[in-house]
């Protein structure tokens, strides 16, 4: 990859609003709008799912109907009308079973625009990709290499058919159907997503990656990801998201479940760049996601996220530290600009002995946006020697935005050691002056300072993602400093 | 009959003051709709009032029994020359109280009827408390007594004012709802010590509301001492509205009681304000102390400083919810908040929620929250030098709490607090001598 300099960035900034805002015309098959049991049966039938799966969905749907949409988050938005959404949309020509050569050339062109090449380039970068457009997984690369190791990496619809015993055992085990309003909705209508199983003692030789894209208008995306790392295994998983620019609000309600068995380690990185709405806050994706991991003895789960997109973000990747000596980590950068709203953070539930958790959250607010950190650190009475360190820093750019922190700390064990600190500040005039003095213009200086502010988190990202994330940060903050 | 029904039946809502009558009716309406808070309310998530509400309260206020000077002495600050205002079961005790000439003191029941107080009821009374929680509304609807204290412009009150509220009921559980209104004039300075104490052999529930208005350049200090019996509960709501260049501090020392809920709210309405909120909580048994603080930064160039320390033993529960809101207009403010807790028993719980909501960019806001243990190497060091383990622990805990005590401006009170800390930690150490 050629070196990406800050001058390139500036050139880009001049022309860009939302880089991924294109719409690819794909001949798509879309269900009529609305949601009822028939729609769910139809989705299930479309996916050729076994009976148990249909029942599972219907059960979730019935429970969802009795639930109320939560209102506690520090965000305001017009509630989606669930009957106005189409719950299934699939590019017609794409067929996951065919080889790459058969993939719709328009799709390939779209990936090129996204910066994902499903071909050689990724081979060099050693990343296996599963791509979900609208609701359907369209391409999974590198199956063979992974198969040799016994790793299963496939669309979840395929996993339901081919590995029902694994899916049955783990799906809903971390995030139950009735966990919350949007998880229940997802359980009822999810159309695809990725499934990954790493066998005992296997270190996954490459980064696994899923790319999500909402393409059609009037649709929602409900994908479901399930990663199971068996004893002593390791996997690094990447997730990226984009959507076209539209005037309407689109709903994205995903569920991610991670299971880390004894001594296993999962590293889950997300670069979320759903369409954030235009400068006046029109349109954009509602991103209401439930992500949770269970850590058994000596297991480790690390969530890293870069949140630059979405009109409204509402997500809390969590770790249940069930086994002794397990570790949970959460590294997050959330950037909001214009009229974006983000209410994001994590939950660390310490149940086992000697469990450790680290939370580093960096929030950057600009324009009229609001950025909230909401986190929970809970130490149960049996969790001896639990250790937590949390740090939440906010950076404010401009005086119309807001930065908020809502940390909940609940401790029931006297041997726990909990530290939490939060700061809020703006970019100091002295810092800018210092840079200006040395010939760095203000825009570059800000990029430099933001980069330094986010460094703790950026460092945790896999290499390719870190570059993308840095670019995203700068694009997101374009024009926010006068 | 539930307490809420009982209250509804007892509600009269008439007052000789039209403004107050209006407030009473409004507040009762609001309370009837909301009822008592439950753990489903976000603000009451960790504090259940069930153990308080289950008691059979006598609604009509009892007549004060024979309380003598001797029975109140233990609750006063020894060796402190102060003005004392004593209430027993909601009734003012002139014989036990001092007359104060430096400031204007009027009982709430009298002030309501006094024409010269019309202005203050119109402009100040209930302006801060209105609708804050259903319990403040309950107080507004039912309160019968309290004090209205006005400190005149440029008056530095020579002695601290001690407000003592005793409960002495013998037959049925008591619900007491005192209401205070304090105004501090321009350039004036005043210190208060407030204590609610039960000497009753029945359960008591104090639902207190205090509104304080500090005018330009005023200095206001309030020290709350809470060390009540295990069947006494307290829900306190104190509001402090600050005009420009004022300094207001509230210290809360919570050492006991069944359920103690402190709602402490500061509103910085002018530039150059300084707000200080300090608290020390030392608990044992099944006590619960819930400190809910709010600092609303509404003006530029202000400061706030908050330090809360807690030591929790037995099956006690500590709750800390510190909210700092910085409005867009409040540029160049400096807000600091620190909450440290030590759990010393297996069954103790701490729930802490330091919360920042910031809408201005040129600010310095930070909060810190720690939960941990005493430093083992420090304990070992002291034991090596012949200090018994228990005392070594007490010394460390005293040091831990001293950040929130050291700035107490009344020396006699400081000695008293240090003594109470030593008692709580069950050691016989004169902390003052060490501290000096």
From TrEMBL, chain A:
<dbReference type="InterPro" id="IPR010231">
    <property type="entry name" value="SUF_FeS_clus_asmbl_SufB"/>
</dbReference>
<dbReference type="InterPro" id="IPR037284">
    <property type="entry name" value="SUF_FeS_clus_asmbl_SufBD_sf"/>
</dbReference>
<feature type="domain" description="SUF system FeS cluster assembly SufBD N-terminal">
    <location>
        <begin position="48"/>
        <end position="203"/>
    </location>
</feature>
<dbReference type="Pfam" id="PF19295">
    <property type="entry name" value="SufBD_N"/>
</dbReference>
<dbReference type="InterPro" id="IPR000825">
    <property type="entry name" value="SUF_FeS_clus_asmbl_SufBD_core"/>
</dbReference>
<feature type="domain" description="SUF system FeS cluster assembly SufBD core">
    <location>
        <begin position="212"/>
        <end position="453"/>
    </location>
</feature>
<dbReference type="Pfam" id="PF01458">
    <property type="entry name" value="SUFBD_core"/>
</dbReference>
<comment type="similarity">
    <text>Belongs to the iron-sulfur cluster assembly SufBD family.</text>
</comment>
<dbReference type="InterPro" id="IPR055346">
    <property type="entry name" value="Fe-S_cluster_assembly_SufBD"/>
</dbReference>
<protein>
    <submittedName>
        <fullName>Fe-S cluster assembly protein SufB</fullName>
    </submittedName>
</protein>
<dbReference type="InterPro" id="IPR045595">
    <property type="entry name" value="SufBD_N"/>
</dbReference>
TrEMBL record, chain B:
<dbReference type="Pfam" id="PF19295">
    <property type="entry name" value="SufBD_N"/>
</dbReference>
<dbReference type="InterPro" id="IPR045595">
    <property type="entry name" value="SufBD_N"/>
</dbReference>
<dbReference type="InterPro" id="IPR000825">
    <property type="entry name" value="SUF_FeS_clus_asmbl_SufBD_core"/>
</dbReference>
<feature type="domain" description="SUF system FeS cluster assembly SufBD core">
    <location>
        <begin position="172"/>
        <end position="400"/>
    </location>
</feature>
<dbReference type="InterPro" id="IPR055346">
    <property type="entry name" value="Fe-S_cluster_assembly_SufBD"/>
</dbReference>
<dbReference type="Pfam" id="PF01458">
    <property type="entry name" value="SUFBD_core"/>
</dbReference>
<protein>
    <submittedName>
        <fullName>Fe-S cluster assembly protein SufD</fullName>
    </submittedName>
</protein>
<comment type="similarity">
    <text>Belongs to the iron-sulfur cluster assembly SufBD family.</text>
</comment>
<dbReference type="InterPro" id="IPR037284">
    <property type="entry name" value="SUF_FeS_clus_asmbl_SufBD_sf"/>
</dbReference>
<feature type="domain" description="SUF system FeS cluster assembly SufBD N-terminal">
    <location>
        <begin position="16"/>
        <end position="162"/>
    </location>
</feature>
<dbReference type="InterPro" id="IPR011542">
    <property type="entry name" value="SUF_FeS_clus_asmbl_SufD"/>
</dbReference>
